[in-house]
Automatic annotation (TrEMBL), chain A:
InterPro entries: ABC_transp_permease (IPR001851)
Membrane-topology descriptor: Multi-pass membrane protein
Source species, domain of life: Bacteria
GO molecular function: transmembrane transporter activity
Location in the cell: Cell membrane
Transmembrane helix recorded as keyword: yes
Pfam families given in the database record: BPD_transp_2
Protein name (Swiss-Prot/TrEMBL): ABC transporter permease
TrEMBL record, chain B:
Gene3D superfamilies given in the database record: P-loop containing nucleotide triphosphate hydrolases (3.40.50.300)
PROSITE patterns xref list: ABC_TRANSPORTER_1, ABC_TRANSPORTER_2
SUPFAM superfamilies noted in UniProt: P-loop containing nucleoside triphosphate hydrolases (SSF52540)
Source organism of the structure: Streptomyces spongiae
Keywords: ATP-binding, Cell membrane, Membrane, Nucleotide-binding, Repeat, Sugar transport, Translocase, Transport
Residue ranges of domain ABC transporter in the record: 5-241, 240-502
InterPro entries (UniProt xref): AAA+_ATPase (IPR003593), ABC_carbohydrate_import_ATPase (IPR050107), ABC_transporter-like_ATP-bd (IPR003439), ABC_transporter-like_CS (IPR017871), P-loop_NTPase (IPR027417)
SMART domains cross-referenced by the UniProt entry: AAA
Protein's name in the database: Sugar ABC transporter ATP-binding protein
Compositionally biased residues, Acidic residues: 505-517
Pfam families: ABC_tran
Region span, Disordered: 501-521, 529-548
Amino acid sequence: MSGLVSVAALRGSRPVWAFGVLAVTWLAAILFAHGFDSVANFRYLVQTASFLGIVAVGQTLVVMMSGIDLSVSGVVALSAVVCAKVASGTGGGATGITVALLLSALVGAVNAGGVVWLRVPPMVMTLATGTILSGALLVYTNGSPSSAHVPLLDSLANDRLLGVPWAFVLWLGVAAVAFWLLHLSRTGRYAFALGAGHDAARASGVPLGATAFTAYVSCALLAGVAGLVLLGFTGTSSLTMGNPYQLLSIASVVLGGTSILGGRGHLLGTVGGALLLTLLTALLTSWNLSEGVRQVVLGILIIGLLLVYARERRT
Amino acid sequence: MAPLLSVEQVSKSFAGNQVLKEVSFTVEPGEVLALVGENGAGKSTVLSLVTGLLAPDSGRVVHDGAPVPRAWSPHRARAAGIGSVHQELSLNPHQSVAENVFLGAWPSRRGLVRTRDLVARARPLLERVGLDVDPRTRAGRLPLGRQQLVELAKALAGEPRLLILDEATSALDEDQVGAVFRVVRELRDQGGSVILVSHRMAELFAVSDRLTVLKDGAVMATRERERTDHDDIVRLMVGRELSDLFPEKAAADPVADPVAPLLQARDLTVPRACSSVDLDLVPGRILGLGGLQGQGQREVLRALFGLDRHTGQITLDGRRVRLSSPREAIRHRIAYVPEDRKTEGVHTARSVRDNLALPSLRTLAPANRLTTVSRTAETRLVADLTDRLRIKAASPAQEARRLSGGNQQKVALAKWLPTDPRVLLLAEPTRGIDIGTKREIYHLLRRLADDGLAVLVTSGDTMELVGLCDEVAVLYEGRVVDRLTGSALTEERLVRASVMGTATESDEQPEEQADDPSGEKTVLLAEELVNDIDDSDRPDPSGSVTHA
């Protein structure tokens, strides 16, 4: 695995920057902000970062092959709402989870199908499916989504393994599998090639359709998983519960050093990006800023960080 | 008289790799200077210093008697009267020719662009570069060669006193090159200056006053054109004679010793590009596709690789095959080295390693798409290929965009070798490549043919087709009009078939040309023909075709 981590390659690499900025920010938070020095706080941070992080890992797969998924907020809500409704009705928890994940994967397949076969630009295609999803959920729930107590999801979201939140363990597991998929497997090579140049990838025999399907379905599936964990965390579902994860998942990918145009970047950077964004949000909250001000400041911070280390290079 | 431009002792390094070593040269007013050198010799880099794309590490560029300011940029250079045209196109394909010509300087009134003015002002410029197109045509609809001429018109729109032509003629056919040279001479006669970069020696000698030879980032010599010749210049470039540029041709005589063709195309038709083309690709032989620019050569290759939709029959080893996607073509062990190497041939933003391994991932991760790619096997494959083709890269992790054009082309070719192809399709395999690498590629192609591959090459370079190929099929308006082989395969006959669009029956000159040894008539004729084509927009040869 010599090529996996080579010190020379890491210097000046944007994913490393993500972790560097994360470390500095965290240190500053511990030193100067109130309440960031406790284990409980640390635990809470990585737990909440997991929800965003799981979505962002999926988003990385799509962005790397020069796509984008703007339906993740819809899928997060879809998965939680459907699982809650099925579980609180006759189906039971296991059925609810299965149905939710199947539907999520289906959305991913529809996204991929639109992009590959109908050649709809990814941004338009996924935004459309996302919009359709929110509408369909409104109809499905009659505007009042149900709450549900699914023991498995409850413990997944709130319990700990040797003191580490299960949600964080799940996130790391998801990231590990995605790392292998993107950086070690043949499909990953195809994704990078596709992101680096569609025409050259096609002329080299890269299976365009299969690669896109893998990426979009994985991304939607992970958004579905995140929805389930959120359902376990809050015990209730809502139509808008996915909204914060839409743009933050993309911001995590880009702050993690992946090129928004695809073909360049590293999955582990996204993990750093998601942690960084969660930490910044928590910091802003701790300063008692109102929701509106918080969003403004967070947006400015994202732009600032992008300028520092994650600009697209000129060609 | 003071020189218009003088480059003084400039040096430049990229990541510790010195590409220019104290390069100096001057360009006088009313002079055409040719910059000659192999790829990677530093020609493009030194021109980037002049046009403001790059700044020198040391030394300086003096333009019009004053050193260029620190904030020199392409925009400022253009404003200061330096126009440039590069091999790579910078046109916006979705805008009209006129809009492209005046890009950024559209005549407007109260914020609205005045299209009529724009078109009217574009006309004389297009005329000047010998381009007979409606200025309202979308630039992307023009064939590559004509787009290049639009680039020239765009440079002229800035009314340059110094015009830089960096490989600007490599996509042009001979008439178009003639038009470019008319502009060059005109500019010179008006006291302007031109810097010319080309790999075609004949072009350099046709218009330049002096030639400056670069080698490995240093100036070898500057020669007056009258006091030098091709061999002298080539010797300065590479330090070796030109005689072994092309390898020996296939020994077997196809008439006496027929070999069954590996790939047969019958009635191959690509809408709006070529019609009823019949080709036989034979193992061990190199077949060329010749003709003027844009007569369907490119589309024939793309069809055979499954990139362009086509009709007609293609048989491989006697069996009918459908080539509807590159993946299918690759499955049939057909490999393709495209004309546009930076967008199709290689991934410029990916490493040499990734590029070389991409078509072979199936063998490097054999079980299925989720299999881990074997790092050791990959390293071995990459080392083997870089070694075998002598690809000059700092390391396998170097991005392909940092390689010289010749090495990029080697990568685009090398990546197919591990897939064990039986048919090799190459479009313009040596365009814009230095002579040393050209030679290497020619010899490699011949070795591959000797190993039993069937090779099909398109080229706009007549000498290349004649020197390399065993047989050349000449395309004209999408149809094969002549097939030249053996002693009939000469530059003269190839050019004649290309411009006349008919088969040339014998080696003898037609009567009326017998006392015209300069060949001027041929050129005139070619101009007329090209004008004919211009008038009828793009020919649509598919109209009269029936196919199975």
